[in-house]
From TrEMBL:
Pathway: Phospholipid metabolism; CDP-diacylglycerol biosynthesis; CDP-diacylglycerol from sn-glycerol 3-phosphate: step 2/3; Lipid metabolism. Its EC number is 2.3.1.51. It is an enzyme of class 2 (transferase). This is 1-acylglycerol-3-phosphate O-acyltransferase. GO terms for biological process: CDP-diacylglycerol biosynthetic process. InterPro entries: Acyltransf_C.
Length: 248
């Protein structure tokens, strides 16, 4: 939900605040266990966006990131406030691809080629997070500073250093699922050809159509790296009297 909704959240906060609060509270009575994924960056990572985040951080006196964007914390703060009473923990997840390994792509998955991905997970109890909105916001920003250092370390040595390591290969269960689905798809294709026999021209047309769909999917994935997300705006400085009178 946050890939498309977070930018709107920043632009129309007053308008959407009530709706978001209601949505969070509806999760309290959700009949099954759930995971709520939050992406405080609010957009996909690109080099241009990283450079914009670095410029903003330098002008605002913040730690300059090398591998992450600066988080936009309004949605995260609201989520913590609304979910604190019934969500036990937050998992801070960092994903990295070793330099010596190929980057996972849609084409690699369609070709059945595996990829190596390192995932670092930290568990934070919700009750251990700060209480006030400003402190929660700073906690999130500090987490991203640590995440940036962790990624820089991974970029240098190719791993998350002395962190506990668990190898997660292909399980027998996943193999059974893949084989079962493959057999069902193959059986369905055979029955389809038996009922509606195709000529060679029609089969060639289907193959070309499939290739075009794959290419279009790849183009759409690349196009989704939009550079048009809302830029961060530096907050004006307030004197001590204003800081003591105005709400944070």
């Amino acid at each position: 939900m946050w890939f498309s909704g977070y930018i709107i959240l920043e632009r129309c906060w007053t308008k959407d605040e009530h709706t978001l609060k209601a949505g969070f509270q509806d999760l309290k009575d959700f009949p099954r266990p759930f995971w709520l994924a939050l992406f405080p960056e609010g957009t996909r990572f690109t080099q241009a966006k990283l450079e914009a985040a670095q410029d903003y951080a330098a002008s605002a006196g913040l730690p300059v990131p090398k591998n992450v964007l600066i988080p936009r914390t309004k949605g995260f703060v609201m989520a913590v406030h609304q979910l604190r009473s019934f969500v036990p923990a937050i998992y801070n997840i960092t994903v990295a691809i070793p330099k010596a390994e190929p980057t996972p792509t849609m084409l690699r998955m369609l070709r059945g080629r595996s990829s190596v991905v390192h995932v670092h997970i930290e568990r934070h109890l919700m009750q251990d997070l700060p209480e006030t909105g400003s402190d929660i916001s700073q906690w999130c920003k500090d987490v991203f500073v640590e995440k940036d250092a962790l990624l820089e370390q991974h970029l240098t040595i190719g791993s998350f250093a002395d962190k506990e390591f668990h190898e997660s290969g292909r399980t027998k269960k996943s193999l059974v699922v893949v084989l079962t689905l493959s057999c069902l798809i193959f059986y369905g294709a055979v029955k389809l050809f038996e009922r509606f026999p195709f000529s060679w021209k029609e089969a060639a047309f289907c193959l070309v159509f499939f290739v075009i769909v794959v290419i279009l999917m790849q183009i759409l994935i690349l196009a989704s790296q939009s550079e048009c997300s809302m830029p961060l705006v530096k907050e004006p400085k307030r004197d001590r009297l204003q800081q003591s009178l105005l709400p944070k």
